[in-house]
Amino acid sequence: MTARKGGAPPPDLELLVHGVGGTTPEEMLGDPRTGLVTGDETAAVYRRADDIDAEQRPPEDREGPDRDGPIREAYVWCNLTSGNSSRALWLLLLPFMVANLAHWMRPPADRRERTVRTYGLLVRLVALTLTVLLIAGACEVALDLVAWQCAGSADCAGGKSWLGFLSPENHGWWSQPGRRLALAAVLPGALTGLLWYLSNRTWSAYEASPPLERPVDESAPEAGNRPALCLPGFWYGRRIVARLRAAHTAAGFLTIAAGLILPTTTYDREPGGSGLQDTAGWALLTLLCAGAVTVVAVVCHRGRSECKVDGELDRLTITALPGAALAVLALSVLYAGWSRPGWVSTDQLPGNEAFCAIAIGEGALIVTMAVCALVLHRAAPGRTPLYGLAGPAVAVLACGLGAVLAGGVAQRFADWLDGGGTPGEGPGIAPPVLLTWLATAIPALLLVLVVLLVIFTVRVWRVRNRLLPTIMDGYPGERPDAVRTRRIAATIARAGLTDSAPWIVGPVALLTLLFGALAVTAAWVTDEVPGRAADGAPGAVDAAAQTAQALGSWLMGLAFLMLVTFARRAYRSPSARRTIGILWDVGTFWPRAAHPFAPPCYAERAVPDLTWRMETWTRRHGGRLVISGHSQGSVLAAAAVWQVDHRTRGQVALLTYGSPLERLYGRWFPAYFGPTQLLSLHGEVRCWRNLWRYTDPIGGPIKLPDGSGPEVDCDALKDPLAYGRTTEHPLPAPILGHGDYQADPAFDRERAGLLARLPEQAPPPAEEEAAGQMSSGRSSG
């Protein structure tokens, strides 16, 4: 226990949590001299240097402007998302991150646990198809375009010295098609290994922080009636991530093995082939099918365990499954490298059928997801966007992004290898027909986006004009300035576009699904690229097909190149790294429940950090605590408050500002931040206040459904603080929007009000402090 001089009451503490993009402890605390209290270079708690030992001194001995207020601490977690320049490469994992978000977007469950489990299972299967799609795209480039088509063509390989040793013209050991395929399999194999390594390494660095372990709190409401974010194992998904990582790694190895086995067995089954090689091929096909069934079974077997801290590992699964798949791949390499002197590579590998099968499987899974989402939404309707179909819509976008990445690489490689010729329009190098059809749909999708952009631009203009007469109501007595008024009204109108996001996501997802279905059908029926399939059609149709094909091919490749270029720029530019950090702050809040190769979840480190700090500080010092969260920090603060025990929650007040808790999370993730959950948080925390502005495009009011919203929400803050020049603001006041909430006088006023509502505490007795020591609960292995 910390002794206080003169028997003074225990101190008060304000724990600040920053929002998207990050900041420095000096900026958060308003002091250039800060010191580390606890933590490491990844995430830590800081104080002003003068407050490091503030608990040991009476308030009058503290220095600085906050001497009469609480001790201030800053929890800095920005390095979890944007601290290292190499993390910019996580942009290439964007489809996996988006698929993982679909898991958390389901509508709330109303005693429909079976439907909830089915929904989660379907999302995990969609995520598995994305891994297969990415590795299949790598196989398409390495095995089909390079090793099979280009290396097997004297015209293509002749102009590329690095492919000379593979050319049949040289009659070398590597010139046989099977051996070329075996060598090319190194590239997708290395990619699969890299994904496994990144997933395993980032788990150890970001998500391995154990939550507090405690006995069941008898005074708290029953666990079954409490929000999911209260469950002790919510922020510790070690078991499911390890299982999914093993399954997805095995799926990647088996996909490569399929790329080697299928063309080889096709040749061996031709008349005059070797019976021994044919038998070996059938054996490997059997192993391949058994491995695929096992992978699907592992993915389907179980989801997350949230009701307890599940630190166990299914060691047999996570070791044997990827090891067995790697053994099948090794046998496939040996089988493909078996001498076949008469084998000649012609046309393309059977990639079109493979990509069509993946696309059909993804479409069927997403449609079934949509049925489950509609069932859940009808059982518990609410403010969920797209009638509960936000999750399936986001899953469609994830699959579309995966197709753009895989197809963009293939299209650009085919163009480069073929010397700029149009893929599929001649005897040159060409990717699967389906990828060309998908690329052809991109211009139409972009046209829809342009139309939506025009519609929303007109909407902003109309809302701005409607707001113009009302702006001066907030600044009585001020002299009107038309330019200033228009600027304020336009800022408010643009901020309102956030609420219109479903009208972008919904149509784009629906059209992506429809265009994908049309592309699969056209590729399957015609087996020709759009330009060739339109031959003989009316001139306008033929020209439109040719234009869309050429433009779509470049756009698909350009989308991939833009991601790579932006990632490289972020390596050199701190401002670009900050931008990427903002994207990840929003997209990687949720645990990796569906896709183990998604970027790591920073909340599995940040929420235990905040929970530990609040519980240990209040138990040790017995003081009152306000946790103040801005933007994404308010979501972390709310999640941490849900995790602390009932006793600690009675000593904690919650102050949120610029908070997306209801505006974004409550609508897009209603099963976890919906009205019922936020109402529960309001009932369980001692007191809560929320600051917001009309000019803020991210934060908004909480709007509790029982009418108690004004108890949480302040009136909208005035922004700008002054319309014109005043004695307090001799220079024009800026429009703050989402930032600088602490600059508003309401911030200090509301913080002081929260502290006043918390009951005065006495220092805990020594024996109670000793009893408050908590186990880390860190599991070994």
UniProtKB/TrEMBL annotation:
Q: Where is this region: Disordered?
A: 1-68, 756-781
Q: Keywords of this protein's UniProt record, alphabetized?
A: Membrane, Transmembrane, Transmembrane helix
* Membrane-spanning parts: 118-138, 181-198, 244-262, 282-300, 320-338, 358-377, 389-414, 434-458, 503-525, 545-567
> So which domain of life are we looking at?
Bacteria
Q: InterPro entries recorded for this chain?
A: AB_hydrolase_fold
Q: Where is the composition biased (Basic and acidic residues)?
A: 47-68
Name the chain's protein.
Integral membrane protein
Organism annotation: Streptomyces asiaticus subsp. ignotus
